Amino acid sequence: MKKIIFFIAQKNFRDEEYFIPKNIFEKNQFRTEAASISRGMAIGSEGGDAVISLSLDDVNVDDFDAFVFVGGGGALIYLDNEKVYSIIKEARTKKKVIGAICIAPVILAKAGILEGVRATVWSSSMEKRPIKALKENKAIYVDEGVVVDKSIITAKGPSFSNDFAKKIIDILVN
Predict the structure, then answer these.
(1) Mind listing the domains of the chain with CATH numbers?
(2) In 34-73, which positions are buried (b, 16+ CB within 10 angstroms) versus exposed (e)?
(3) Tens digit of each residue's pLDDT (9 = 90 or more) over 84-96
């Protein structure tokens, strides 16, 4: 049975970007776990709660087939986190599936794995820094809801949670 690990913030993760993919993965017979800075409970921006079974230090890349970074304002705790960047780089080296939604593609970009990779990210008419961050880290920004480039899947935000999850499944089963 394939295993998917979510990386969510303990406060202010985007509920739909976690719960919708989690439900889709589990309905399709994938096992899921959630990781964060430390174990315990996480509370989403809409009030949903999630059990964090692994701290970053507990994550063994070999135990998982896919690594999914959930967005929301809280996700920014992973920027400049060398442990997270190390996990992302190892997962990429081992050709694991890596997904990020909303603001989280910036984490992948800053970890250095989006160089030359087509990717998307959340932005708004007033906030273009996420796009700038992708471009500064040599990603090829694409203005689409969900973008797949080999084993990296990025999505713009909560309204793309279903499609995001389905693209991850497609890559894992093919």
Answers:
(1) 3-173 (3.40.50.880)
(2) bbbbebeebbbbeeeebebebebeebebeebbbbbbbbbe
(3) 999 999 999 999 9
Q: Measured between alpha carbons, how far is 127 from 103 in angstroms, rounded to an integer?
A: 11
Cβ–Cβ < 8 Å for 3, 168: no
The Cα 37–Cα 52 span in angstroms is: 9
The set of residues, in sequence order, having a beta carbon less than 8 Å from that of 100 and lying 6+ positions away, is: 68, 69, 71, 107, 108, 153, 154, 155
116 is catalytic: no
| Cα–Cα distance, 17 to 143 (Å, whole number) | 19
Q: How many residues does the chain have?
A: 174
Q: What is the pLDDT of residues 150-159, one digit of tens each?
A: 999 999 999 9
Q: Which of 42, 91, 101, 102 is catalytic?
A: 102
CA end-to-end span of the chain, whole Å?
Answer: 14
pTM tops 0.90, yes or no:
yes
Nearest CA to 35 among 15, 13, 64, 55?
55
Q: Taking the CB of residue 157, how many other CB atoms lie within 10 A of it?
A: 21
